[in-house]
Amino acid sequence: GAVVSQHPSWVICKSGTSVKIECRSLDFQATTMFWYRQFPKQSLMLMATSNEGSKATYEQGVEKDKFLINHASLTLSTLTVTSAHPEDSSFYICSAIGREMEKLFFGSGTQLSVL
Amino acid sequence: RKEVEQDPGPFNVPEGATVAFNCTYSNSASQSFFWYRQDCRKEPKLLMSVYSSGNEDGRFTAQLNRASQYISLLIRDSKLSDSATYLCVVAASGTYKYIFGTGTRLKVLA
Description:
heterodimer; A: four-stranded antiparallel sheet; 54% strand; B: mainly beta; six-stranded mixed sheet; five-stranded antiparallel sheet; globular
């Protein structure tokens, strides 16, 4: 099956720093990538939809200036959490889909802890 | 009301038991339905798609009732390895914008 690689798996950072998370489709061209956030014992919440070469579409309540998404190529999307604060600590997961594919493929997730 | 609702559990069952999870969704335009399994701090993994006619995959059976906007998952002969959180997922027609339920935690006990 298709493979989506997400990096890093976990990151610990100080409050106020920025953190970049990468999501790569390794064996297909991802026309659309999705970014989710999951707090403990809660559901995956869609943050934004990212189409290659265009601006991301953010869900209601997600600050686009805080969560910067770049989908510059068909195999890479990045999520940058700017000026991270402890309340941003969460599990972030990406998923991707390519043309003529029938289902999403998920990255392995990134656990972000902001001190 | 949440778009996709599930009983969070936990469901603690002995090995070999049969357990059923339910899920309701609010958007009648939903066209795609799935059950995913998620282990702690891991990505969700597709367990099975859910079709109107119902479908079975080994010990797992999924049912869809469009009229009641209700989805179910039945697990027979539970194994210890079935312990996980089971996520109900719904998507509207023509979109891969998945809406996840909060998940139902299952713990299979030896």
